[in-house]
Amino acid sequence: MKPAYGGLNSGAVFALLAAALFGGSTPLSKVLLGRVNPIMLAGLLYLSSGIGLALWRGLSRGIGRRQAREASIKLADLPWLVGAIVSGGIAGPVLLMLGLRITPASSSALLLNLEGVLTAMLAWFVFKENFDLRIASGMVAILAGGLRGKSESF
Length: 154
Hints:
Strand order of the largest sheet: 1-2
Number of helices: 5
Order of helices and strands: EEHHHHH
Number of strands: 2
Structural class: mainly alpha
Largest sheet: 2 strands, antiparallel
Strand content: under 5%
C-alpha cells in the first residue's frame, strides 16, 4: 500500500478511523438508550454500518479502485458463517446494548477493549492462528490500559 496521510499507509488510517468510530459508539449508544429500545438500537447501529459499507463499496467502484478477488464460500463454510452472523451480528450487539443499559459507559468502554484480547486468544487457542511477541505485547498493553482505567474509576 502507498503511504497516504503523513507517512501512514491507508490501511493504518482506516484502522484508526474504524477504532475512533467504534470507540465513539459506546458513549453515543449510552445516551440514546434513554430514548431507544436496546434491541432497536442494536439493529440501527448494524444497519448504519451496513449502509456505510455499501456506500464505501459504491464509491470505491465509482472511482475505479481495483477490487480484490475474494475466495468463494464453500458449503462446508456455511455453518461457520451462520454462527458468525448469529453470534457476532445479532446476539452480540443486542447483549451489548442490554448490558450498556445497566452498566456505566466508562466500564463498558473498558470492557470492550478486552474484546480484542479475547478474540486474539480465541484465534490462537482454537484456530491455531499465528501468535508472536508483537501480538502478545499489544495484548498486554490493552490489558494494562484497561486495568489502569478501571482502577482510576473507583
